[in-house]
Amino acid sequence: MLAKNPDVRISLPVVCFVWQIAMIILFGVFVRYDEESDAHWSEHKREKNITSDIENEFYYRYPSFQDVHVMIFVGFGFLMTFLKRYSFGGVGFNFLIAAFGLQWALLMQGWFHALDPADGQIKIGIENIINADFCVAGCLIAYGALLGKVSPVQLMVLTLFGIPLFAVEEYIILHVLHVRDAGGSMVIHTFGAYYGLTISWILYRPKLDQSKRLNGSGYHSDVFAMIGTLFLWMFWPSFNSAISDHGDGQHRAAINTYLALASSVLTTFAISSLSAKRGKLDMVHIQNATLAGGVAMGTAAEFMITPYGSLIVGFCCGIISTFGYLVITVSRRIQDTCGVHNLHAMPGVLGAVVGAITAATASESVYGHEGLVNTFDFKGKYAERTPATQGGFQAAGLCVALAFGIVGGAIVGFILRLPVWGDPSDDNCFDDEVYWEVPEDEESIPPILEYNSHMVGKYADRM
Amino acid sequence: MLAKNPDVRISLPVVCFVWQIAMIILFGVFVRYDEESDAHWSEHKREKNITSDIENEFYYRYPSFQDVHVMIFVGFGFLMTFLKRYSFGGVGFNFLIAAFGLQWALLMQGWFHALDPADGQIKIGIENIINADFCVAGCLIAYGALLGKVSPVQLMVLTLFGIPLFAVEEYIILHVLHVRDAGGSMVIHTFGAYYGLTISWILYRPKLDQSKRLNGSGYHSDVFAMIGTLFLWMFWPSFNSAISDHGDGQHRAAINTYLALASSVLTTFAISSLSAKRGKLDMVHIQNATLAGGVAMGTAAEFMITPYGSLIVGFCCGIISTFGYLVITVSRRIQDTCGVHNLHAMPGVLGAVVGAITAATASESVYGHEGLVNTFDFKGKYAERTPATQGGFQAAGLCVALAFGIVGGAIVGFILRLPVWGDPSDDNCFDDEVYWEVPEDEESIPPILEYNSHMVGKYADRM
Amino acid sequence: MLAKNPDVRISLPVVCFVWQIAMIILFGVFVRYDEESDAHWSEHKREKNITSDIENEFYYRYPSFQDVHVMIFVGFGFLMTFLKRYSFGGVGFNFLIAAFGLQWALLMQGWFHALDPADGQIKIGIENIINADFCVAGCLIAYGALLGKVSPVQLMVLTLFGIPLFAVEEYIILHVLHVRDAGGSMVIHTFGAYYGLTISWILYRPKLDQSKRLNGSGYHSDVFAMIGTLFLWMFWPSFNSAISDHGDGQHRAAINTYLALASSVLTTFAISSLSAKRGKLDMVHIQNATLAGGVAMGTAAEFMITPYGSLIVGFCCGIISTFGYLVITVSRRIQDTCGVHNLHAMPGVLGAVVGAITAATASESVYGHEGLVNTFDFKGKYAERTPATQGGFQAAGLCVALAFGIVGGAIVGFILRLPVWGDPSDDNCFDDEVYWEVPEDEESIPPILEYNSHMVGKYADRM
Which sequence ranges form a coiled-coil region, renumbered to this chain (chains A, B, C) (predicted)? Predict the structure, then answer.
């Protein structure tokens, strides 16, 4: 019945074992604690005249880190449980690739951003693990475009290549071009979305209609997905502020994001209702487009965009994103299961543009001299850069993100077309049965107690 | 078949758009960053001899803010998913009105509490957004009384009026009467509950029995509701401590609330079991009455009520609230879907009384001179106020909350009776079908793969 | 039909009331606020020359406390919803015994660790409530072994005895032996697991097969359980760092745990896939074994185990734990519903061994002199202890935990065999119907609206 063979019994364990062992070896060679997480910190503190333990970077960033962590695992994970029979795959494979990706990201980002020239080692602390979670987000966004159509081995390969692509792209944007992108409208969302969309385009399945019966939500799976939506929505202020500047930088980034998101919700409900018979709302829109404001504030969150500026950004993105779900089909060839084009690609690009404009129009009268220097880090070799120039570089950053997403996605897409990865056949997509032991439904339990040996066989060893 | 026409295709989008645009304009005119979230903060810090970024208000309150945010969106939202076929409406409309309400609250509360006399503008920071979430909570409590019986447009109207009512009431209680109410037993719970109950009384549906078949829970919807219950329960210590005084104030408020909540759980289980045949527990009680201790600690949380005092408050509230679910029907005319009378009204009033007594009996021997002045803010023109007087004012605060809830609810209730809001007919309440595109159940998928074009039609544009 | 009588209508309310009243009396006699949560703090602060409110212990630990709190109530609670018809009991009884246990733990741990010699009272603050949550975790782990087979009254008894056993064991391990165990591999996991397994062994039900039809998961209950898994997984870094040393201690504990958990995920997926036909993954493994890395890092989390050391620990534990679910049946007599032997017992013991080795091999060259003294608290009468000796004491600590778990479990097991506790009969286990009012399924609602008075009878008083 199946044209393809989705048996991953050898390939998945091999991939997991080999890559995890590689991580251990590479960590052994390269990764150590940084100054603030090393037991020598008490000496270091004295040398630097730091008077209190509360000055440890941990206390500035740990609460935000945990919020970001929840977004990665529960937010993205549960957002992808909306399909009626792919909830295990949605939350489970998200879990797998994020757990691999964050290790790989610590290495790749470390080589580019955190290498200690004194000993050639990567020194990690709280900021590195936040950045690793960010890096993983790029790959999880890409997964959204492919949900239900690929094997876990393909997802691991997507992550294996996605992380270094992200790290290089991020290095060029943030360090070479000296672009600001605190919440990653470009670096995370634009890159991740185009990476996934390009792969989806290359993995085009002309006969995907054969799985149409499962490519939809169920009542309870829609409620599960709302868990993902809400944790993403609520914690997005932490996402955009997690690595911005201490003090007013983090403070402002949180407030701006909070406002943009609120605004997105109203325009999403408006367009969703306007578009349907009798004004009925569509869960697809509510689960996704309400988040567009957070994506679009990724670049400008720490800027003085003003509270009403944030509202305007959210207003526009809620509209654009919902319209995306309603009408846009960029190409029939891109079978974008979660609609990442509408949630991440368009708002990400918009966010980059908003960021470029906001940067270009920044002034000392608004920021103060010190505030302008701090916010845009016009220090050292960038001391002479003007806001206008910065705006130009911000726009250049967007092009880099797009290029890495599309070119990287094309290369990885062709790799994933090789017939060795155990992906499901066209009539077997969106179905947990392919890669999971699925219990029979509780609904099928007869109310009169009756012995059913088959159903519980797999749990026998639990007792 | 339907006597009423619940079509909101025009009204809902118009309301969302117009009000969101109004928010943008009003924010443009009135709202700016406060000192600690503005880019001038580094200058400000130097002027005030603040030595460390960690002194930014953000670090004192942001973790509590995020907990409160989770309570508003996941806590209240999922608590209202308990109905078997109204989970979309429970969590979805909660999302909509909270997102609108928090913007509107920033303005209304800002005009009353945060107006900068120098330039006539509202300066917002972390404390304002916590207060906006609090303000929204009042309207969400009111929604609980109306769950399943009103249209989203009516909920928006309820919020439009509820927020200013709250802001004025709060201003009178906290600023004119100089009452302490850190966690809002009066300001939030009493007001919100009576506001909702009065509206429900006015919107009385004599034939609501026609929707009886849907006015109950399902097995899975009860488990979803437990997500709401638990996030409310766990984060209530953050709710009651979020805006209390730095240092021992926040610390004590968290501990007192933690204890009162634990105590509520035991008496709730006790009464629930005692009241049923064979001692069977009722999920309605577990989902709601376990939270009563948190409501009742809202006023006294930051006081020196002592750990055992907190346990006693929780003990009583668990009993009272569960009894409420079992026996009290204040009036057949009040069709209180979620039982907000039992969860918010009674414990809120009790909390106000507990607060008044605790305040009246406060003494320098218990608080220390400095502690007493700080806790009750006996400074400036209140420097001469005694604890006994404070107790009297606390009691007066309760009356203000009740008056605003009941009178405000009456006015808004009559507005909501106008036949233009698209509310459901009596035989169509508690049903997501009215305002949502509801997917067919996953259970109806035949295990033998069969083409079903109808079911997935609405998702076609995703591919 | 039932051999036993699971009616708890008298016993459960009596237990809840009497014990809660006892708590109130004991708190009244013994429990007061500590220096940092008392209103005298502002004076205390001045005396000690503390310059800022941010130095209050609250700000060092409150975010971690809330994460731990989520693990206890949502993490453990939802992890136990996996059974198809015991979700109410899983999350509900977890709620009950945790709420009782944390009060009892504040007293028991207080008498051993926090008694103020000046006035014979227990002074509580944020660290005490974190420790109370930890203490409760021991009993919740034990519950996991008994899930579905005991009555709520038995669980209350299990907790009544479990908390003092924990407190004494903890006192011996941490204070008498001066062992380090920040995240409780020994104190919490080893003790809790063997306590529960021994009780389960004594409560052996030879005819448990009669409930086999319900001893398995359902599709949605498996997704609910993933909520528990993920919140445990994400917040485990907070669990292991919540009470470790300020500054680098907390920082390092969080990073080590983060890495170990990531590594566990990959080996869990690998073994799960390797063991099944066509490589299909089993949700039982993903829900549980992915957490083993966190358990095993409980002792060594704050040590300089190095990032790759953490990865190795997680690597091994993912394998061992998954194998446990696949093949190990320690004894047919131990009917371990949740597999706590695989998730807590084995990784806990391994964690203790890892901790002992890491401690024994600690050196000044790695930690610095000051770092070594701080990390192992080689101060006062322990100033002369060497790392090697410390390693020996760590191993001794493991023996204490095992002894308390097994002996305590045996005693409590025999108490729980008394025929007075209302436990379910063998053919009635794993069934919420026994102790809960269970709503009929929403699926049974006829799509054509039809009056169904029976179903909603219990909700009538809500209106």
Answer: none
Query: 3-class DSSP state for residue C353?
Result: helix
C269/A12 CB distance under 8 A: yes
pLDDT of B39:
96
Q: Would an 8 Å CB–CB cutoff place A7 in contact with chain B?
A: no
Report whether pLDDT(B167) > 80. Answer: yes
By C-alpha distance, which of A288, A66, A300 is closest to A181?
A300
Tell me: pLDDT of B445 over 60: no
CB contact under 8 A, C230 and A453: no
Concatenated DSSP letters of B406-428: HHHHHHHHHHHTSTTS-PPPGGG
- Cβ burial of C25 (10 Å; 0-12, 13-18, 19+) is exposed
A298: pLDDT strictly greater than 70:
yes
> Is the pLDDT score of A264 beyond 70?
yes
**Best interface-test mutation with B: which of C1, C11, C18, C20 has the largest number of B CBs within 10 A?**
C20
- Closest chain A residue to B36, measured at CA: A248
Which 51-110 residues of chain B touch chain A by CB within 8 A?
52-54, 56-59, 62-63, 66, 69-70, 73-74, 77-78, 81, 85, 87-88, 91-92, 95-96, 99-100, 102-103, 106
Q: How confident is the model at residue A328 (pLDDT cuts 50, 70, 90)?
A: low
Helix (H, G, I), strand (E, B) or coil at B19: helix
* DSSP H stretches of helix in A327-445: 340, 346-360, 364-367, 369-376, 387-416
Contact, B167 vs B159, CB < 8 A?
no
Neighbours of chain A (3+ CB pairs under 8 A): B, C
Q: List all residues 6 or more positions away from B212 whose beta carbon is below 8 Å from its beta carbon.
A: C451, C452, C453, C456
pLDDT in the model for residue A149:
96
Of C27, C99, C439, the CB nearest to B218: C439
Contact (CB<8Å) A279/B129: no
Cα angle at C232 between B130 and C19, to 5 degrees? 80
Q: How far apart, in whole angstroms, are the C-alpha atoms of residue C441 and residue B180?
A: 46
Question: Chain C: nearest CA to A54, how far in angstroms?
Answer: 7
Distance from CA of A59 to the nearest CA of C (A): 7
Comparing CA positions, the residue from C309, C310, C318 lying closest to residue C285 is C318
Contact A263 B40 (CB under 8 A): no
Report H helices in B31-125: 41-47, 57-70, 76-79, 87-113
Judge whether B47 is closer than 8 Å to chain A, CB to CB. Answer: no
- A 124-183 residues with CB below 8 A of C? 124-126, 129, 152
| Rounded Cα distance, B241 and B258, in Å | 11
DSSP state of A302: T
> Per this entry, what is the length of chain C?
463
Please list, in sequence order, all residues whose beta carbon lies within 8 angstroms of the beta carbon of residue B22, skipping any fewer than 6 positions away: none
pLDDT at C403 over 70: yes
**Complex ipTM:** 0.94
Which residues, 6+ apart, have CB-to-CB distance to A77 below 8 Å? A90, A91, A94, A95, A228, C226, C230
Give me the residues paired with residue B121 across strands.
B116
| pLDDT, position C3 | 57
Q: Which residues of C touch A437 (CB under 8 A)?
A: 276, 280-283
Contacts of A226 in chain C (CB under 8 A): none
Q: Give all domains of chain B, ordered by start, each with its CATH number.
A: 16-422 (1.10.3430.10)
Q: What span, in angstroms and rounded, lies between the C-alpha atoms of B368 and B386?
A: 14
Length of chain B: 463
Q: How many CB atoms lie within 10 A of CB A104?
A: 26
pLDDT at A158: 98
